[in-house]
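Folding problem:
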Amino acid sequence: MKRLFCAVALSMLLAGPAGAYVWNNAKWGIGQGDSVPYVVSEVLSQDMPDGDCLEAVQLGYDAWTAVSCSYMAWQYAGRTANTAWGAGDGENVASWREDFWDDSPVALAIASTIWGGVNNFLSDTDIKFNGFHHTWAYFRMAPGGDGRTDVSSVAAHEVGHCNGFGHSDVPGATMWPSTGPGDISGRTLSADDIQAVCDVYPSGGEVPPPDMEPPPPIGNVEFGGDCSMERCVEGLFCLNDGRDLYCSRPCEPGDDTCGDGYYCAFLADGGGACARGQDPGRNQAGFGEECGNGLQCQSGLVCVNDDGRIYCTGPCLNDMCPNGYLCAELQNGESICARGDGAPGDLPGAGQPCNDRGLCARGLFCIRDPLNVDEQTGELVPYCTAACDNGMCDEGFRCIDLQPDGTACQLIPSAGSRALGDPCWVNPEAPFSRPSCGDDLVCTDYVIEDQVVVEKGFCTANCSPDDCCPEGWGCAELTPVFGQCRPDVEDSPRFRCQGGMPP
């Protein structure tokens, strides 16, 4: 088996003899008058009409075909339902990923390349565009200013990788490793890009007919050796695992024939190749199984710490989860399946403390608000809330922004409902201000030193002969006009109770 994968960034690449372009020592073996066919997936970007996106992708291939000093040529071969990437199926596919992206979110697109044999001829290249994290446009005549990325510029860059080129260090080159929103310069090859394709694919340098093909050169690099500059010995091929180039050999996925430090990597065509490292697909935990301590979850699952129970789980499907699990809302608006059989009504509602697992009723999530603390212990008390509705929240809440994104309805700090004798409330947003007890009571015996409340005091009420204090409290005279309820004292003579005593 002779295949390898080449992503956006190549490692240990061979520099071209002139200019600053980079070539990875692999190329297409094209005969005179021949071209390399490519197909485009039937479903493209959702950000523009299909015809515009198709035309923009084709421009990326045409940019490399139109160079007069080079025989490199791409030929559009139609649309396909195939969206495989790195599959080695003989189709050179350009496709979009709108619903899922399993690589770096900053990547605009990634090219895969497969090559091998004594001549290091390319045999399969695919490009996948990241429509999950980025928005796209086809700016026909001039750069765009709406924050979207030009399809044709990125396509031309990725086709350069499919020609066997790495990133150039010449600013402004199509193979320069980055672009910006609205930038269309990449769709036009620079002098460095033209030098690259004319050096590697010079006009007149096409592959000769079979009877004129020279004998293949003999390689001397053994298994595991660096093949970025030298060829592998017979029976081996050069493998690019995304980090290094080294000689590898075919294997059967699941066997242990590759030796120490290697595993048999599964390839899309059903075969395998010996790759460095440990098998990432081995010892992976499934849904509901324990994870952590080096044990990862299977693809599509995440490892969660559920009140000390660490296990693999996944997103809710139409708010549904398997038996033994319930759909739990997360702060970022997503939801996952958490262990438990509780119905939504059994979980805390808005403003109530989250349960001991951090779960809330359907549509709510648990928030850790530094303003919501237990007055006795001083410990933070997480509570259940919801995202703001167009900046609005229910009474008693206010809308706040969350970091890095999202909104939440925050409980507005208040004294709440307090009784005689309860400690006064200190506003956490203004700890230097006078403590309070709500609308019906007053705070007394508090102490403020250096603008800090050092004694909260307690809640009481004003009193008069007709507005008596409850049992166990006496109306102590403060002024000739009114008194104040104090615990364990008798009524002052002027304020002896003449009305009914409250409970």
Remarks:
- Residues 1-19 have pLDDT under 50 and may be disordered.
